[in-house]
């Protein structure tokens, strides 16, 4: 069949590759001038630093098949994400761990002592936390909540933590040991030559043709036997019911001669600092050596029609609108909505790849009867 992938991000590339290997002819279009979607990386010509153009991306997964998939297309170097945060004139280690607690309270507690101490300062009267704020107060108490969660969350989401659901802060956000590796996953790493090189290799197949700077219009749909659409779900319907809410990011790029902050990610938890974090991109490739440095100050704000949608808001209003769009989409034929924008969900890269592989399998089993959603957005 002649199949169109709208979007050359991980979703479009992985589905396209699997269907090409099964003998289908794949055309991939992307409105941008590069492949890899939001994971796009490019070397800064002045410093040689590999820059994560749309914000930092660290690969982490427990899914062995996905790990084998990515390492089949690119060498991954070991990388542990170790985040620091500046708060109240001091630098602390994140996620909150024994070092953070001891430093914050000026103590030398052992794990059991810290556990007892935190359960004393935590608000255990909150039995069934409903909001982000209640969840944080329940687990860490007011001091750590104010220093590490409150301001950061308000900047990130533009809302008070008492208006956000508890699910955003799902698990116990504290470690009673000195483990400062941000992720628990079995496989963690960084692509040696960046994500764009990896996606270029995924797309490098005789049955795949890629057209950049090419925006898809819905009127073109019938030229194809099937379309996989990784653009915005509401965009498919020309935003007829209104826009699904997103947060967008502004990156204030600056350079520095030397090492600016000594780590890849420095958060700023306080409300009076307007940005959420500074990322120093050369530290995402610790096996490389560069004199110069490229940094992003990251600001979060409401997404307008002219911005890149980053984080879906998925509050009550958005979920109701999403349900209406999903109902419309389910009546469409010849198209499957995929990826972070097509299903209006935050998806890590490994989840995106897992879903893309499963979507390709669904298509190989069901052909043109493949439904609008292989992965339900709600
Ligand atoms: C700030 C940020 C940091 C992240 N960090 C991490 C991380 O550390 N680790 C991790 O695992 N994941 C991370 N992610 C998630 C990661 O970015 C996604 O998993 C991944 O980008 C999803 O790929 P996708 O192909 O679904 O979407 P995208 O990468 O968004 O690709 C969609 C593509 O479709 C194109 N497109 C859309 N509409 C059209 C149209 N009409 N015509 C033509 N082209 C179109 C777009 O230009 C885009 O290139 C992060 C996400 C964000 C926002």
TrEMBL record:
The EC number(s) this enzyme carries: 5.4.99.9
Organism field: Lutimaribacter degradans
Protein name in the entry: UDP-galactopyranose mutase
UniProt lineage: Bacteria, Pseudomonadati, Pseudomonadota, Alphaproteobacteria, Rhodobacterales
Entry keyword set: Isomerase
């Amino acid at each position: 069949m002649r199949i169109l992938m709208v979007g050359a991000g991980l979703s479009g590339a992985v589905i396209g590759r699997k269907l090409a290997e099964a003998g289908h002819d794949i055309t991939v279009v992307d409105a941008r001038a590069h492949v890899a979607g939001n994971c796009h990386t490019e070397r800064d010509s002045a410093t040689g630093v590999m820059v994560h153009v749309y914000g930092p991306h660290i690969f982490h997964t427990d899914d062995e098949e996905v790990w084998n998939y990515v390492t089949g297309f690119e060498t991954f170097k070991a990388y542990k994400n170790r985040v620091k945060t500046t708060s109240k004139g001091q630098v602390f280690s994140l996620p909150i761990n024994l070092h953070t607690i001891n430093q914050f309270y000026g103590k030398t507690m052992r794990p059991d002592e810290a556990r007892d101490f935190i359960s004393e300062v935590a608000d255990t009267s909150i039995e069934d936390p409903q909001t982000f704020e209640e969840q944080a107060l329940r687990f860490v108490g007011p001091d750590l909540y104010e220093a590490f969660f409150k301001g950061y969350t308000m900047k990130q989401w533009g809302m008070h933590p008492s208006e956000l659901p508890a699910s955003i802060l799902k698990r116990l956000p504290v470690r009673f040991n000195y483990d400062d590796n941000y992720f628990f996953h079995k496989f963690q790493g960084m692509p040696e030559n960046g994500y764009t090189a990896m996606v270029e290799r995924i797309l490098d197949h005789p049955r795949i043709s890629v057209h950049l700077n090419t925006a898809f219009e819905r009127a073109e749909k019938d030229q194809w036997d099937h379309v996989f659409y990784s653009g915005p779900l509401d965009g498919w319907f020309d935003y007829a019911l209104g826009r699904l809410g997103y947060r967008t990011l502004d990156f204030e790029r600056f350079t520095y001669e030397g090492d600016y902050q000594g780590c890849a990610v420095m958060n700023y938890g306080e409300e009076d600092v307007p940005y959420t974090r500074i990322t120093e991109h050369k530290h995402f490739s610790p096996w490389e050596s560069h004199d110069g440095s490229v940094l992003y100050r990251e600001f979060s704000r409401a997404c307008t029609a002219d911005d890149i949608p980053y984080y879906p808001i998925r509050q009550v209003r958005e979920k109701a609108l999403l349900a209406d769009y999903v109902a419309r989409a389910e009546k469409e034929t010849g198209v499957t909505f995929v990826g972070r924008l097509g299903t209006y969900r935050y998806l890590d890269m490994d989840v995106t790849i897992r879903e893309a592989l499963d979507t390709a399998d669904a298509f190989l089993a069901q052909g043109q009867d493949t439904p609008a959603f292989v992965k339900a957005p709600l």
